[in-house]
Design brief:
The complex is a heterodimer of chains A (122) and B (137). Chain A has one domain (10-120). Helices cover 75% and strands 0% of the residues of chain A. Chain A is built from six helices and no strands. Chain B has one domain (15-134). Chain B has helices at 15-45, 51-60, 62-84, 87-93, 96-107, 115-134. Chain B starts with 14 loop residues before the first helix and ends with a helix. Classes of the chains: A mainly alpha (122), B mainly alpha (137). At the A-B interface, helix 1, helix 3, helix 5 and helix 6 of A face helix 3, helix 4 and helix 6 of B.
Amino acid sequence: MGRQKLTTPVSSIALVLVASVIGSAGAVFLKSGAMNLQPNVSSIVFNWRLALGIVTYMLSSVLFVKGMSNGELSVLFPMVSLGYICTLAWSRLFFQEVITRAKVMGIGLILLGIIFLSLANK
Amino acid sequence: MSSITVSPDAQVVDPHKRRQAALIVACCTLLIAVAQILIKIGANRLSRAGFLETMIGIFTVPPLFAGYCLYGVFTVLFVYALRHGEVSVLYPIIALGYVWVAILSAVVFHEAMNPLKVVAIAIIVAGVAVLGWGGKS
């Protein structure tokens, strides 16, 4: 029997999970920034929500690349989907978006596809 | 009148605009995939560079610069789409980028395409379709 050796460091798993959650927060900031846009230059340049969204997004991608750089991709890659599930919660909380069956099914299918894709890339 | 405010509930009612937003993001995922491939190509040239060299490299290494520019274009279009669509629908659509990367690496870089990959691609596309077309409440 014997337990399989753990090839994916916990630190990589943590980095990727944190990156996913931060990425979903970035999408929320971008959304709230987008809703506050008005057709003039200053509302775009001085939109702190948009700026925060972009910075959060970049931070998330840096953490993501760092986390993915060591460990098994087939383990780490599907964890991206945590971000989609978080977005479902944030969007209900902050924008009163409804969690529909189609959304849950769509995200479920995407998650399944990502798991298959990372297995296929092994 | 200088203030045209967008009320929170006004932006989710039009189903056409909502679908259009989903379509914009879906098409834009091709930009992300191309950007990722360009950044990967550029990053390979900088594999031994330090932090400062890497930061300068973003502007001086053509594929890196082009890759980040494409990301910029994507962000602008994504923000535009977010004005009319729901973030819980639009954000997961970005997963289509993985599909493009798989297709491009098979077509452009002649990486092996196996049946599991084809199934995975089909499932992701189906998931995005369910999200994009059935996202109304």
